[in-house]
């Protein structure tokens, strides 16, 4: 996928220096697709950095951004409006110049050092997110999306309360077609909770998404044939048919032992003893 990207302006100072003058902005929703769309709106509205997402259970997710006070204020306002449009808004907060102890304990500045080395870019593709209540509906929707258009499955995310989200990537037209097909399949199997299509997402947003763990594909090994393929053919010997014994043949065969010996061959009987008077 070709990327027509443009770098965004970034602070020149080192992270440890400009972090003291930055503000903290947070927007919370009850859906993972909604929080991704909210984070996208916050990042595109002003020059802020997406620190990450905090999943607190029960389907609640919070997008955390850092930047200048004015930029964070604009980002929080844009994120709140976006979350309300989705009907998933919970709360929002702006904290200017948080204390060092707060930053050391809470996950509010974990990825800031990466932003000084990697510039944020805008992708030419699109992201699609579809959230269902129940794992079978999400799997069925993912299968329908891959068969409906040429897209790539990136990963899936669970946030509690049975909410499962499948994340796809591709061109805007393909993502829109795939999401529509996934919606129909999810409603047929179970419950559809939320959908989101984000055109031209920022590079920081794409890097913040969960990544699927894929095992390396093993290349098939060639089959080694034996060098000597000539084998001797075994001669077929017809099997001997067993002879069937008939009554006539049984009469022709002599008996092994005669029933009675001839009289000439019989031993003479012993003479009776003489009587004494």
From TrEMBL:
Pfam families per record: BMC
Organism: Vasconcelosia minhoensis LEGE 07310
Stored SUPFAM superfamilies: CcmK-like
Keywords: Bacterial microcompartment, Carbon dioxide fixation
Lineage: Bacteria, Bacillati, Cyanobacteriota, Cyanophyceae, Nodosilineales
Location, primary (coarse class): other
Family classification: Belongs to the bacterial microcompartments protein family. CsoS1 subfamily.
Chain positions covered by the region annotation Disordered: 209-277
GO BP terms, alphabetized: carbon fixation
PANTHER family associated with the record: BACTERIAL MICROCOMPARTMENT SHELL PROTEIN PDUJ (PTHR33941:SF11), PROPANEDIOL UTILIZATION PROTEIN PDUA (PTHR33941)
UniProt subcellular location: Carboxysome
Domain BMC: 23-107, 126-210
Domain of life: Bacteria
Protein name: BMC domain-containing protein
Chain intervals with Basic and acidic residues compositional bias: 262-277
Gene Ontology cellular component terms for the protein in this record: carboxysome
